[in-house]
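Researcher: Quick test of sequence recovery. Tokens follow.
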């Protein structure tokens, strides 16, 4: 199991524990945890409605792909630590990370 922290748009933080042996994406875990993540494209990195900002732990998550960066750079608000939750797999690299929800309509 991996534990990370999610901050919603109101600034409330909650620790989430997720299995790291099922190949789940962060987007899938956020939706299962009932966060308002639209994920319109179903995790294909085509819509950016699962936009998050990594507040802590970005270095261990690796670099965003070109496809992911193309979507992020088209957003009205893009941060150096922005990522798409659909492109981050639940793994030990996520342990202790802090993420903030940023997707549209969250």
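Model:
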């Amino acid at each position: 199991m991996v534990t990370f922290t999610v901050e919603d748009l109101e600034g409330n933080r909650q620790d989430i524990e997720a299995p790291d042996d099922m190949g789940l994406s962060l987007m899938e875990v956020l939706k299962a945890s009932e966060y308002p993540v639209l994920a319109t494209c179903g995790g294909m990195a085509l819509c950016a409605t699962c936009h998050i900002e990594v507040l802590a732990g970005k270095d261990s998550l690796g670099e965003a792909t070109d496809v992911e960066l193309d979507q992020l750079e088209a957003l009205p608000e893009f941060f150096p630590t922005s990522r798409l939750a659909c492109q981050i797999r639940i793994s030990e690299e996520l342990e202790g990370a802090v993420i903030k929800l940023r997707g549209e309509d969250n």
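The chain is about 15% helix and 25% strand.
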